Structure formats: structure tokens, C-alpha cells
């Protein structure tokens, strides 16, 4: 079943980008961490048309990017990227109506002062808390330790989120907050099947 449509980025002189990681940060648990397909259309609903001038990058596990061509003559604006929206198809085991019994507790396995950012990786959490989390989560949420959503921190930082975890890397002059994550596991894992 497809997710709702998401329009995270706005077109600029560079292009338009609708990345899975930024959508997962802004809309936690509304899209799975490992989609199997992606659909793209303009915000007005027109399907994406392939053009020689504009470069498109589609990848269900990364998202969609449209890159504008270099400025060529006075007609360069004709080939600019439009404002796009995306939606993903997730495996059947993912549902936005997930069972609250299958969501893990919050984990904070790293501090932002220790290594140039805050890294909450699934592999580290699995090692630190064996048996408490599935090895194949279908969704991930991240927020600050104080409970603020990631997109509201206002920090000038690079953020990345996927099925393998969450990372925040310091980008001067910004600094990462202390983050925590929790995962949604398949129902079978929670029920012990």
C-alpha cells in the first residue's frame, strides 16, 4: 500500500529534492525505513517527464532528486525542475497503523560531545541492549532527549535517518543536540513467532 504524498523540499536554482531521510524526520512512522518503490509527480499532479536537460535520480531507499542544468542561454528557465512530491510503497508488513506493542523503548546510546556528532546506530544499540530490539526494524523515530522533534531543533546540522539508525554530524557553526531513537519491529518479532 502506498504512503501519503510528501512534499518536503522546494525548487531552487539547484533543483528539487525529496529525500527519504528528511521525510522520515518530519513525518515519523508515516513511511517505512526500506521502501520497495517510489512514485513522483509535480505538486499539481503531473507525472514526471524525462528531459535531457534536467537530471533525475530515483531510488526508493533514498528518495528523489531533480538537478537543474547549467544556465544555458536565455531559455534556461524552461528546463528548471518543478516542485515535486513523492510517495513510497512499503512492504506489506509495514502499516501506518502500527501496533504500539511492537514499538521499542527510546534508546540514547551516544552523546554529541564525544565524536563530532550524535550517532544512534542500530548495530550499536543491538550490541548494547541484546534481545531488546529486532534486527530488521520497519520504521524508526528520532527526537531530542528532551522530547523535541528533530525538525524543530533549528540546528544547522546534517541529519540522516534510515533503517540502520540516525546520525547528526556537526556543521559549524551548528551543534548537534542529544538525540534518542526508537524502532518499530514486525508484529512477528513482538509476538515471538
UniProtKB/TrEMBL annotation:
Entry keyword set: Glycoprotein, Secreted, Signal
Matches recorded under Pfam families: Mucin2_WxxW
Domain WxxW per the UniProt entry, residue ranges: 3-90, 104-185
Main localization (coarse): secreted
GO cellular component: extracellular region
InterPro entries per record: CILP1/CILP2, WxxW_domain
Cell location: Secreted
Official protein name in the record: Si:dkey-205h13.2
Taxonomic path: Eukaryota, Metazoa, Chordata, Craniata, Vertebrata
